[in-house]
Amino acid sequence: MGRVAKLCLTMLCLLLSSVAHGAEQPLLPERIIRDVGRILERADDDPQAAIDALSDLLERRQRSRQVQAYITQQQAALLIREQQIGQARDALRKVLAGQPADFALPLRLMLGQALLMLDDYAAGLAELEAWAETVAEPDPAGLFLLGYGYLRTDDLDRGIARLEEAIGTAEGKPRNHWIELLAYAYARADRAEDALKLMQDLLAIDPGQERWWRQLASVLLLMEEIARGTAALAVAEHVKPGTFEQRRRLARFLAHMGLPFEGGQTLAAALVDHADEASADDRLLLAEMWVLAREFDAATEALENVQAELPEDGKPSLILGQLHLHWERYEEAGAALYKATEVYGEETPAQIYYLLAITHINLEQYDDARRVLVRLEADEEYAAKGAQLERFLASREADENA
Fold it and tell me: What SS3 class is residue 248?
């Protein structure tokens, strides 16, 4: 779990900083706020001097617990930023000692984070659970840290539950690395399908992230999807695409390597970002990728849009008819296929009449089926298939009349 640990260690630092500066504070003397503000203004130039000045401010006179908590919170954030994690832990513990569970909750969250950074997972998880049980609406960032801590102790079930909770309660779009960590947890818990879905979601956001392709490959290989896993590894060597042409080429490569869903995601994102460069043929390519990926609703929408954009091209309606046949939606299949014959006219491929015959047979429209089968008699490729349908039709009618 080394890479995940490094990823989360970075996040811990960022979260601690946001807690220190973004948490709502109790009513404090204006003089204290002003003195702390002046010290922090100089923190970037001389962090250690600022840490020492905050210590002096704490010890200069007897302070109320609320004032101690406020000053310690700023000092602990600086200590952590300067990688003095042990000192931050000690300072936070000192101000929290003997206080009720609901006292200075942001500090308890910071203490839990600091303990995790020191690899003291049992103590860190205890502090974070106490924080989560006491705060009215736990910050998703804190829930994420609980999930991370449980994963570090191999408590996969509780880790996954807390990560799911963090992602579910995050306002707007959750952080990408949260989803990445949850996918990792799913994979470790033998929930490969869930891991695969999350990685696909991430790649839909940004198909240019090499590490996500490598994690996708790991999940696919775990599922013994050797060809697709190998393809994902190959893709990792080709990112990051930038121009529309590069992204379209990557999408084609993905589909060719057996990853049509990922190819569709890549092309769909490129069509949004480069709408002025995309053509109807590109949108038809997207529809074909959705068909290959068995994303039929997305394929149907794309095909209908392309047919409206290219009224002189019968291919979208042909593919749409094939999709409806696959779903056994025979009325819709017939409508799409007849639309294709209107577009192709005298150049209508025999394949369309063959599909129409199948459609009519399933609708028990036998006279219509024979009418279109006649058009197959002169076609070298479809004549035999048409004759076979004729025999099937005769057999069905005989059974119905018996």
Answer: helix
Question: Could you tell me the end-to-end alpha-carbon distance of the chain, in angstroms, rounded to an integer?
Answer: 70
Q: How many CA atoms lie within 13 A of 211 on its CB side?
A: 9
What span, in angstroms and rounded, lies between the C-alpha atoms of 134 and 308?
Answer: 57
165 token code pair: 């909770």
- pLDDT tens track, the chain, 402 positions: 544 444 444 444 445 444 444 444 557 888 888 888 888 888 888 989 989 999 888 888 778 888 999 999 999 999 988 889 999 999 999 999 998 988 989 999 999 999 999 999 999 999 999 999 999 889 998 999 999 999 999 999 999 999 999 988 887 666 778 888 888 899 889 898 898 888 888 877 777 777 888 888 888 877 777 777 777 777 776 666 568 887 888 788 778 767 788 888 888 888 888 888 888 888 888 888 998 888 888 888 888 888 888 888 888 888 888 888 888 889 998 998 998 888 888 888 888 989 998 999 889 898 888 898 888 888 888 888 888 888 888 888 777 776
Residues 286, 326, 224: CA angle, nearest 5 degrees: 70
**DSSP structure string for 115-168:** HHHTT-HHHHHHHHHHHHHHSSS--HHHHHHHHHHHHHTT-HHHHHHHHHHHHH
d(CA 194, CA 230): 20
Q: Are 330 and 322 in contact (CB under 8 A)?
A: no
pTM: 0.57
Query: Tokens 């006649």 label which residue?
Result: 374
Helix, strand, coil percentages for the chain (3-state, nearest 5)? 75, 0, 25
CA distance linking residue 134 with residue 106, whole number of Å: 11
CB within 8 Å of 195: residues ≥ 6 apart: 183, 184, 186, 187, 219, 222
Residue type, 247: R
Q: What is the DSSP letter of 173?
A: S
